[in-house]
Amino acid sequence: MTRAESDELGVALASPRSVRELLRQWGGALDEGIEDARVRRVVSPEHAGRDDDLVVVTSLRWTRQATESRGVILCSSEVADRCPRGRRWIHDQPMWVVAQLLSDIPSEPPEGISGSAWVDPRASVHPTAAVRRGAVIRAGAHIGAHADIGEGAVIFGRTRLAERVVVGPLSVVGRPGFGWTIGPGGEPVRIPQLGGVIVEADVEIGPLCTIDAGTLSPTILRRGVKLDAHVHVAHNVSLGEGTMVAAQAGFAGSARVGAGVLVGGQAGVKDHARVGRGARIGAKSGVIGDVPDGAAVAGFPAVPRIRWLRAWAKLLGSGNRSNE
Questions:
Q1: Cβ atoms within 10 A of the Cβ of 28, count?
Q2: pLDDT digit string (tens) for 201-253?
Q3: How far apart are the first and last CA of the chain?
Q4: Using CA atoms, how far apart are residues 51 and 48, in angstroms rounded to an integer?
Q5: Which of 91, 230, 232, 235 is catalytic?
Q6: Any idea what DSSP says for residue 108?
Q7: Is 235 a catalytic residue?
Q8: By the number of CB atoms within 10 A of the CB, which of 45, 47, 220, 322 ranks highest?
Q9: pTM of the complete model
Q10: Which domains does the chain have, with CATH numbers?
């Protein structure tokens, strides 16, 4: 691999930084003798190979590659003993440090309202917001300061996005929820969904997400919620502050999710279920009942994670014995 090819596999810092300076700014502990080392890029262990690399190691699986690298190793205390001494910057939150470093690198600047976007004159868009190519802002929508509406996204009326909300490309926020009733003759009748959507500050909605409007009251994404791609939030759902949801997860109507919940990919939460503060929901779980504060659940139906793992261990063990 050439030097140019190697450079493309890491992220170059805005300017070279001394490890001493980084330690003073973000803390941690350094091995003796590397205070004056300078780093020019942040890189994963598998692509490290230069003396000026800052090699990020957060898992035991990468310690062998870290040993073979030549740069400064930013590692957590959990893996520090497996990393080569004399080159370690040990920090309790190494990925937080990475986030701070990368935030200094110039990103795509806001573009205001693109000429190919369509904004209804009855919508309210803050002058500092970005509305990118092909996006649609419908009448009655409110877009707050420094919001960023991605390419092709659609923001319906009765939707309020607070400051610094990010909506990914092709996401749809505020469309009428999936609300139907059966009429006297057995015919399906749509229930108007007029409750709208409230998205509080610093929420990030990934690409290809759908956030449905509530029926009588709004669907709510509290401050700091982060949604990965392809997440569906149905009508009247409330997601608590700081909740993080991995790709392809879904929440049925009127589900309530507390603050600080982590939801794995492809998990589903049934209508009207309650998920407590700080809960953890494993990938592909099916939550069909309430989840207590701080609980970790997995499987379908979702049960305490340890119980689910034991059940699978027993099942797989029985299967192995039957094949002997």
A1: 19
A2: 999 999 999 999 999 999 999 999 999 999 999 999 999 999 999 999 999 99
A3: 49
A4: 9
A5: 235
A6: P
A7: yes
A8: 45
A9: 0.86
A10: 3-103 (3.40.1390.10), 118-295 (2.160.10.10)
